[in-house]
Structures are given as structure tokens and as C-alpha cells.
Amino acid sequence: MKDSLDAVVKRVGRLGHYTKPEKIEGAIKLDSNENFALDRGFVAGVAAEAASQVDLREYPLDQLEDLYSRLAKYAHVNEKCVAAGSGSDQIIELLLSTLGGRRATVFVPTFSYFINRCELHGIKVDQVPLLHDFTLDKKAFLKSAKKSDLVYLCSPNNPTGNQLDRETVIDIIDSLEGKLFLVDEAYVDFADYSMSNDATKRNNIIVLRTLSKAFGLAGARVGYMVANEKFVRMFRSNIQSPYPISTLSLAIASGVLARAHHVRQTIRAIREDRDRVFARLSKLDGIKTFQSDANFLFIEAGRNYRAICTALRRNGIVVKMLGNIAGHRGCMRVTIGTRDMNEKFLQCLEGLL
Questions:
Q1: 134 φψ region: left (φ > 0), alpha (ψ -120 to 50), beta (else)
Q2: How would DSSP label each residue in 90-124?
Q3: What is the distance between the alpha carbons of residues 250 and 139, in angstroms, rounded to a whole number?
Q4: Cis previous bond, 60, omega within 30
Q5: Overall pTM surpassing 0.70 (yes/no)
Q6: Distance between CA atoms of 234 and 90, rounded to whole angstroms?
Q7: Which of 22, 243, 299, 339 has the fewest C-beta atoms lying within 10 Å of its C-beta?
Q8: How many angstroms separate the most distant Cα atoms in the chain?
Q9: Domains in the chain and their CATH numbers?
Q10: In what order do the strands lie in the sheet with 124-129?
């Protein structure tokens, strides 16, 4: 028994894992795709109101139903087609541990957490490279997916930022009716379309969404999924834990969703500034910036990578440094923050290149 346990511990210890970013006091934080454009006072006000209304001595009972109602209204689906979790990460974990099967197909580069968790659960992951412009090699992807139990589509994709072509996604799903599709839409609030409505009408699509990005609640840990009514009923009763989200987080999430019109205004501002930042960066020699449907930009810096790293560090600006990835040299992912944060990032690069 001891040898068997040792072997398990060694196997798990060798697996890839998510590394949390370093907290740097006073830095301009553009590395984790949080929504700093949503005013801190707005979120703090909602949180204070929520804290004054809840009784933390009690288990959350009707609060979860209230959240389902508000999520459904925001996502334009029936509330019976929505389930929530402690971040979409927790929902991914539950789905992999119960429905993951033996083999999954993903395209790469993509959200590394999903690949890491598949490996933890002993699910073989076939990784199909995206084309050089980050579009999907449909033929290669279908060939792999036909052999898999689970297909993962991150759209808009992290870290590249692009949303997959809708017709392509529908065509792939139609071609593989017997496969389970997880469509990760963590950044869909900044994009042009969602698969949520499609998921409610089919038996093989689960859409994953979150309040961590557009709604500025990364610290509250609230995610949700959209699927057909039958599957959601099973997930809520048989897979998800009875109290997956704290009473306070539930109240905060419902409070922010009740003010979704304000969040939508911020989303529009982020999209506008994303386009402005992209236009400025596109004029710089020595780097290539990719169009994005998310709240971040993917940049290939090539031979200027180290110099940019040094300049950003000197100016107290933190971005996600990726290095060489998918045939692209010296890459980084940069969050669209407040206009002032974005301007400081732009001035840093413009002063260097």
C-alpha cells in the first residue's frame, strides 16, 4: 500500500500545474485579465450592501436560486439551464472528475489549466496546434476529436484572444454529435456572440462562463455553466455540492448582476480602448499585435522581448510574459486596464521602439 501511495504522489508531483502570478505592491497590474476598468468603489459598494444583508451563520438556501434567476436573465436563457460554482475552474474540475472520459481533444495554445486538470484525472489530452494566425485547423481538429470523449473549445481563446468563427464551431459540433463539448467563454462578454442559447437546445454542449472578468469579481469566485435543462438538473443535484458558493459571494454576485447595465457600459469602454491600444501598437516596428475579442491583447515581440521586459519592469508594469509559444517568438499577453493604465503601457513601448 505504501509503495502504491508513493507512486501516486510521485506521478502527481510530476504533473504540470498553474502558477499564481506574483503580487507586486504598487505595480500597474496587466497580467491576469482582471477588470480594473470597473470602478473599485462600485464593486466595494455592492459588497458592503451585500454584507449588511446576509447572515453568515446560515447556510445559503434561496440565495442560489436568486443568482440563477439573474444569471439566466443576463445570459438570455431559461434559469433551469444555469448552474453555478466557485469559479468556472471548480465546474471544470467537477465535469472532468465525473464525465471526462479517457481522452480529450484541445487546440493549442489554450487555457493551460484545463490541460493540467485533465492530466491530473488521468485523461489523455491530444493537442492540435492552431495555424500560425491562430485560426483552427478544422480537418486536423476533427480527426483528433473523433477519437476523444471530450472536446474543449476556449473561445475567445486564452492567451491568443481570438473568438472562433461561429459557423466553424457549429459545423464541428454537428459533425460530432456523440461527443461532449466544453465551450469555455470566460471572455465572451467582450466578444460578438455566445454559444449559450445553442447549449440549451442540444444535449452535448456545456458553456462555461464567469463573473471574474467582465463583472470584476475575480476575488468572489463565482462561475456558471449553461446547458440543456436535463443536464443542469443532474449537475445541480448529483454532481455539484449542496452549497458551492458562500452566502456573501452569492449576494455580491446578485448585486452586481442587478446593475448589469453599468457593467455593460464598462465592457463597451474596454472594447473601445482595446481597439485604441491595438491601433497604437500596430504602428510600432519590431512587434506584432494580434486582433482580440477578449479584454487583453496577444503580442509577439521577437528579438525585442528582453528589452521590453526590462522596460516594463523598470516602469512598474506587470504583464503576462509567455516567451516562445506556438512558433511565435517572445510573446506576452497584456490586459486592457483603465485608460490611464493602458496609456502608461503604451508610452513605455513607444518610448522604447
A1: left
A2: HHHHHHHHHH--SEEEEEES--HHHHHHHHHTT-E
A3: 43
A4: no
A5: yes
A6: 16
A7: 22
A8: 63
A9: 19-35+261-352 (3.90.1150.10), 55-258 (3.40.640.10)
A10: 82-85, 223-226, 205-210, 180-184, 150-154, 103-108, 124-129
